[in-house]
Every structure is written in C-alpha cells, then in structure tokens.
Amino acid sequence: MSAKSELIKNAYVEPTILILLRQATHDIHQRLHKHPLLQPLVQQSLTKQHYILLLQAFERFYQSVEKRTSSNTLYDDFQPNSNTITHDLITLGAQINPINEQPVIVIEKSESAILGMLYVLEGSKLGGQLIAQNIKNTLGYTEKNGTAFFYGNGKQTGEQWHRFLLLLDSRCTHHSDCINSACQIFEILEQWLWLVYKRYI
C-alpha cells in the first residue's frame, strides 16, 4: 500500500450514509451473491460460455445506466463505462451481443439519487478484483485479454473507493433519495439477471 493510500485509510471515518446504505442493501446484496449467473464467477467451474453471457448481460445493463449519469460532469471519475465490457467481449471473440433489450433504469434525478446508484456500481468494483483473479486462475484471462471490466482500477481500486466515499459524504444531502436509489439499482439488476438467465441459459 502506498504512503498516500495509508494516509487516506488512517484518516478515514465511515460516514453515516455509508452505514445506512450498507444496512438497507444487505439482503439484496446477499441474494445477488447467490444468483446463478453471478455465482460461477468466483468458482472453478466457470466456463468461457457462461462468462461471455454474463458480460453481455452487464453490457446491456451498463449501457442503460450510462444514460442516467453521462450528463453530470461531477462524476467524471466514477462514470460507468460499457465500452470496457464491449472491448472484453470483442477480445473474447463475441462481437455480436444476442441480448437485444436493455433494462429500464428509472430513478430520481437528484444528486443524492445519482450517488446512490454510483454507490452500487463503485462498490461492485471491490468484488471485481476477486472475480478477475478467479477468471485468471480458471480461464487464463487477464485485464489485457478479457477481464478489463472486472479488473477495473486494479491496485488503485481501494483508493478510488475511498475517494468516492468522500464525495458521497460531502454531496449527499438527502439520505432517503440515496438509499432508495441504491436499493432500486440492486433490484433492477437482480430482475435483469433473472430475465437473462431464464431466456439464455
């Protein structure tokens, strides 16, 4: 860990909104860990076919999410980027996504609501590090040939997460908007993954 990262870690105190978000999203977060589309990502049984389908589902999900955040430059450092998923798919030889529809993302347009959505997306990058490592171990792919999305910021992921939490703490003025948004995004993702699972597995 760099001296800068250590300084950030030592100076950091969990904001109230983070505690509330964690409590409010705990149950659905746990359900997603057990979802049949997601669970293989951390198992040795993961196949290339399953991994590609999951990336295709995420590509459509993130394309929909981008429409909700792209107009706000405040979050430039935390913008979701479906292009990284598309790049992984092309690298893996899956240029055409068979999933034609996208999930509908409907949340409040307030800044606090956007922060709630970004809490879900930024938090997922922490787990992405474990997923990237398992994919490397089971399928042999790295951030250079198929796991750029899950690899994310690599060793800087933790530091990026703390920067987001500082933004969350300083800019979130309506806790209820933020919490409702985070819960909605988790629920939309869960429903979307079940739809993809039932149609394409």
Automatic annotation (TrEMBL):
Domain of life per record: Bacteria
Gene3D superfamilies listed in its UniProt record: Heme oxygenase-like
SUPFAM superfamilies reported in the protein's UniProt record: Heme oxygenase-like
Name of the protein this chain belongs to: Biliverdin-producing heme oxygenase
